[in-house]
Amino acid sequence: MGAMLRLRMISCGDTVAMLSGYVDEDLDPKVYDVIKKHLEGCDNCRAVFDSFTKTITIYRQLPEGEVLEEVHIRLTEYLKKEITSEEGNP
Ligand SMILES: [Zn+2]
Hints:
Radius of gyration: 18 Å
Number of strands: 0
Largest sheet: none
Distance between the termini: 60 Å
Number of domains: 1
Bound molecules: zinc ion
Shape: elongated
Helix content: over 70%
């Protein structure tokens, strides 16, 4: 009873931390169920879960080399923006 109660009161942080296991269905069925219920009742975690699964779906569709290139492009763009915004500041 005590353990069940604790699992039912899983926090958003715990839910997000276990999302990758949840997506892979690599969790204890009881934990999986608790996270599923939490996602059903928590808009916050559902939003995180949605973007998480979308990202994973996209990455799994791409061959490994393209994923690396995509990450590299994003990183380069991010750094460019960082540099540009710093230069733009007075
Ligand atoms: Zn939550």
